[in-house]
Design a protein that fits this description.
The protein contains 16 helices and two strands. The chain is an all-alpha fold. It has one domain: Farnesyl Diphosphate Synthase, CATH 1.10.600. Strands 1-2 form a two-stranded antiparallel sheet.
């Protein structure tokens, strides 16, 4: 995975350089904007960089079919700079989504540290400003997310301007734009399910939860970065179709693992409180499966407790035990395995670089077996 390690380092360097370039623009406006710059750096430092990696290996899967291809060799292709910029732009987009997601979910932490709106709330309190600290924190974090979203566009555009082919650049840009629409729609569907689930027929709840997974996470986390990278390399329709056939089930498996971690994850590892999704009332596939399997009395208790932000540790434990006893956890593990197998099968004999296909298979294991 030497290429992946190198890519992650280059993406971090590019993000740091990009923020350094934007620093004087923001700083020249007012010293009051210092938290914007500081918090941006903090939220864009480190992380798993899965979206950047899928973008890179999607590119390599097409560009690297030639066995002599060496992206980091002495004759680096100009496309590599484009890929690094676009991969970095995807990471900025992800950071913007996380800032907004934490506001929507009223989450206090992100990666073991205060979430953006809580950090801005702290600025308000520390400086003893007037008005409501929480309201200020939310307002400021919305603007930070908007800023990161705009910057992600700038960075993607900078990268695509480097590309020698206007057709490839236009194709990659269209895919990026589609991804933005899909993830925003998926986020809306997610909050709809948290509040409108009770008015929909019981038989529809699992299907509705599965649709949220596809559009809020699966496409944006895996499929879209893959095909954006492939488009930069000039992928044909068959190559795009293969990468979609790999990326969508893997993205579903990725989010199913995330849903398990949101309920059963170790706070010391995930950086989020254990059972956080239970307090937030997430109507995930895990919850839909549990409800199907539970007797009416247990289902009623689950529905009454789910989404209560004041859940105690004992109540969280009760809900976790209820979900375990329903068999939903084992069902999710089987679904993850089934989707990973479907993704792996899509690469059999695919018209892609074998080396890249092997790296994608290794990534499939990494993203679906993670503990954070």
């Amino acid at each position: 995975m030497a290429d992946s390690t190198r890519l992650v380092d280059l993406v971090q360097t590019r993000i740091d350089d990009f923020l350094e370039e934007r620093d004087p623009i923001v700083a020249s406006i007012s010293t009051d904007l210092a938290p914007f710059l500081g918090f941006s750096r903090d939220f864009l430092s480190g992380g798993k960089r899965f979206r950047a990696l899928f973008c890179y290996w999607g590119w390599q899967a097409v560009a690297g079919i030639d066995s002599e291809f060496d992206p980091f060799g002495s004759l680096e292709p100009a496309e590599l700079d484009t890929v690094i910029d676009v991969a970095s732009g995807l990471e900025l987009f992800h950071a913007a989504a996380l800032v907004h997601d934490d506001i929507i979910d009223n989450s206090d932490t992100r990666r073991g540290a205060p979430s953006a709106h809580r950090r801005f709330e702290g600025v308000h309190r520390d400086d003893d400003w007037s008005g409501d600290a929480a309201q200020f924190g939310t307002s400021a974090a919305i603007l930070l997310g908007d800023l990161l979203l705009g910057w992600s566009d700038e960075l993607v555009d900078e990268g695509l301007r480097r590309l020698g082919s206007p057709e490839r650049a236009a194709s990659a840009r269209r895919l990026f734009n589609t991804m933005r629409t899909q993830v925003t729609a998926g986020q809306y569907l997610d909050i709809v399910e948290e509040r409108a689930w009770s008015v929909h027929p019981e038989a529809e709840l699992l299907e509705r939860a599965q649709r949220v997974i596809v559009y809020k996470s699966a496409k944006y986390s895996v499929e879209a970065p893959l095909v954006i990278g492939a488009a930069i390399a000039g992928a044909d329709e068959q190559q795009i179709a293969v990468l979609r056939a790999f990326g969508l089930p893997l993205g579903i498996a990725y989010q199913l693992r995330d849903d398990l971690l949101g309920v059963f994850g170790d706070a010391e590892v995930t950086g989020k409180p254990s059972g956080d999704d239970l307090r937030e009332g997430k109507r995930t596939v895990l919850i839909a499966l549990a409800r199907q399997a539970l007797p009416p009395g247990a289902r009623r208790i689950l529905d009454e407790l789910l989404g209560d932000p004041a859940l105690t540790a004992i109540q969280i434990q009760t809900l976790q035990d209820t979900i375990r006893h329903s068999g939903a956890l084992e069902t999710i593990e089987k679904l993850i395995a089934r989707n990973v197998a479907e993704a792996r099968a899509a690469l059999d004999g695919a018209p892609l670089s074998r080396r890249s296909a092997n790296q994608l298979l290794a990534l499939a294991e990494t993203v679906t077996r993670r503990t954070a």
